[in-house]
Amino acid sequence: MEAEALAFAPADSLIRRAAALIFDVDGTLAETEELHRQAFNHAFARHGLDWQWDRALYKDLLRVTGGKERMRAYHEKLGISPPLPDEAIAALHHIKTAHYAGLIETGCCPLRPGVIELLAAAKARGQRLAIATTTSHGNIDALLSQALGANWAAEFDAIVAGDDVRHKKPAPDVYLETLARLQLGAADCVAIEDSANGLMAASRAGIPVLITRSMFFADDDFSAARAVLDDLSELGAAKPETEKQPHAQ
């Protein structure tokens, strides 16, 4: 037990010293990407397209951040001309988003291990919470209303989504906007991410990053992260001080 405690001490310290914790959503708070994949395929079928994104293809497509951008990139990859019009992309994305919300409402996608405990511990310590994500406000609300209740947004001091900024991850825009809303410096915060794109985005904004490995990004290069965990239940900071027991002497 003592060896394990020492192994996660840097991550624990990183979390505890922060004035604010800034969370990515997809893959970080919950393993949502598989549901997104299913929702995309549903939208394609509804729209009469013969596209079918399997997990291997979707993993590759996830390098493109943003659902609309991902569909455009895939269409370009097929070499089909002319490009899909914005109206078609918007229609596909609308169907996809509605189906994703329906999947989430079934309760099939709980928050990842350690997330709820970390949120509670952070609030108990007086730390501020924020969200910086590429996904849409609707997708965030669908997930967190189910997981945390209808008033979930009151727990967060800043919620910045992909459509709130000009450039999506790996550009730093979403994190720079989050810092501006929090009125905090980058060094006062910690970003919690699951992907190389998220790591790059936060790092370019100057924010130290803790990685929690996820289903589709587990083998990304995280060498620039301050700490890498399999999930947040491994983080000592996920437990409030009153629940921690001293080591036996």
Can you characterise this structure?
With 249 residues, the protein is α/β, with parallel strands linked by helices. It contains 10 helices and 6 strands, in the order ααβαααααβαβαβαββ. It has helices spanning 2-7, 9-16, 33-46, 55-61, 67-78, 86-105, 115-124, 137-148, 173-182, 196-204; strands at residues 20-23, 128-132, 158-160, 189-193, 209-212, 227-229. The protein has a 6-stranded parallel sheet with strand order 3-2-1-4-5-6, with helices on both faces. It is globular.
Present the secondary structure layout.
Elements: H1 2-7, H2 9-16, E1 20-23, H3 33-46, H4 55-61, H5 67-78, H6 86-105, H7 115-124, E2 128-132, H8 137-148, E3 158-160, H9 173-182, E4 189-193, H10 196-204, E5 209-212, E6 227-229
Parallel strand pairs: 1-2, 1-4, 2-3, 4-5, 5-6
Helix pairs in contact: 3-6, 5-6, 6-8
Low-confidence stretches: 1-7, 241-249
Q: How much strand content do the residues show? A: 5-15%
Largest sheet: 6 strands, parallel
> What percent of the residues sit in helical stretches (DSSP H or I)?
40-55%
How many beta-strand segments? 6
State the distance separating the first and last CA atoms: 13 Å
Radius of gyration: 19 Å
Order of helices and strands: HHEHHHHHEHEHEHEE
